[in-house]
Write a structure and sequence with these properties.
alpha/beta, three-stranded parallel beta sheet, globular, binds NADP nicotinamide-adenine-dinucleotide phosphate
Length: about 270
């Protein structure tokens, strides 16, 4: 099969490119095709004629979206619709009511609605708290801070599911092969607060740093974050896809990060 991945240069996209085996995969960054341009999108799709399209491209700066609303909608909603504009012959599918709390969330929810209208049989995958080697993410920030401090304060009043890009890339590949339709929630299994996640990272790295819990009001940011964003795994289980625990994924991430750092130095 031929697969075209938009957003191949991003955190998830890099893992998709590394993990996707046995198919003819083309990865595109914004320099190859700006998804805000219907012409650029049509041109690359016509060139590659994919059987599957994975859209991992987005404007993901949640706080930046608050002050750049037009850009958020241009990339996350209009861009997504440009990729799935109804002019291709890929069948996909529908789902669920939403209550976005930020401009980022609004732009993503608007995209979901429009893409479902165009492709009732599409597969929309929602995920959360994505981390991996090759881009900005919570563990990378925490480990960099932990290398220079004796104490860290991390918020303990937001609960969610961390998701390792490698496991997500593998799950996406399985979902494509199984012809998944509808909305699917895919995260590593289990849930935690950012404080739990940070504590696990520091402990597993063997760092001598004191991690203390704090509250979100100590770290006010432009975009509101939900206190509870745990996604149910039942939609993923329906397809027989099981993702490892976030703790186990954290161990593999740390090993991958270490290898990547060693390669950079060497
Ligand atoms: N990170 C998270 O915690 C998280 C949580 C839930 C859901 N998600 C979703 O998961 C998906 C992947 O996120 P990620 O964290 O891997 O994103 P990321 O690391 O920020 O990468 C974003 C990707 O989008 C591409 N892109 C941005 N603007 C574009 C444009 N106008 N035209 C074409 N490509 C463009 C970038 O290309 P260039 O680098 O070449 O410019 C890059 O490849 C997104 O849909 C995101 O909303 C992420």
């Amino acid at each position: 099969m031929r697969v075209t991945i938009f957003g191949a240069t991003g955190l998830l996209g890099q893992a998709l490119m590394d993990e996707w085996r046995d198919d003819e995969v083309t990865g595109l960054g914004s320099a190859d095709a700006d998804i805000r341009s219907p012409e650029q999108v049509s041109t690359v799709i016509a060139r590659h004629c994919p059987d599957w399209i994975v859209l991992a491209a987005a404007y993901t700066d949640v706080d930046g979206c608050e002050s750049h609303r037009d850009l958020a909608f241009a990339v996350n909603c209009d861009g997504a619709v440009n990729v799935f504009d109804g002019k291709h012959d890929q069948p996909y599918e529908v789902d669920a009511p939403l209550a976005p709390q930020s401009v980022y969330g609004e732009s993503k929810a608007a995209a979901e609605k429009q893409i479902r209208d165009i492709y009732p049989d599409c597969c929309i995958l929602r995920t959360s708290w994505v981390f991996g080697v090759g881009g900005k993410c919570f563990p990378d920030t925490i480990l960099k801070l932990a290398a220079t401090r004796k104490e860290l304060e991390i918020v303990n009043d937001q609960r969610g599911c961390p998701t390792y890009t490698v496991d997500l890339a593998r799950a996406i590949q399985q979902l494509c092969r199984k012809g998944a339709t509808g909305t699917v929630h895919a995260t590593n299994s289990g849930d935690c607060t950012w404080f739990d996640f940070g504590s696990e990272l520091v402990k597993a790295s063997g760092l001598d740093v004191q991690v203390r819990p704090t509250t979100s009001d100590r770290f006010v940011r432009p975009a509101k974050r939900p206190a509870y964003s745990v996604l149910s795994s039942s939609s993923l289980c329906q397809y027989g896809v099981v993702m490892p625990s976030w703790q186990e994924a954290t161990q593999r991430y740390l090993a991958e990060r270490e290898r990547a750092t060693r390669n950079q130095v060497g």
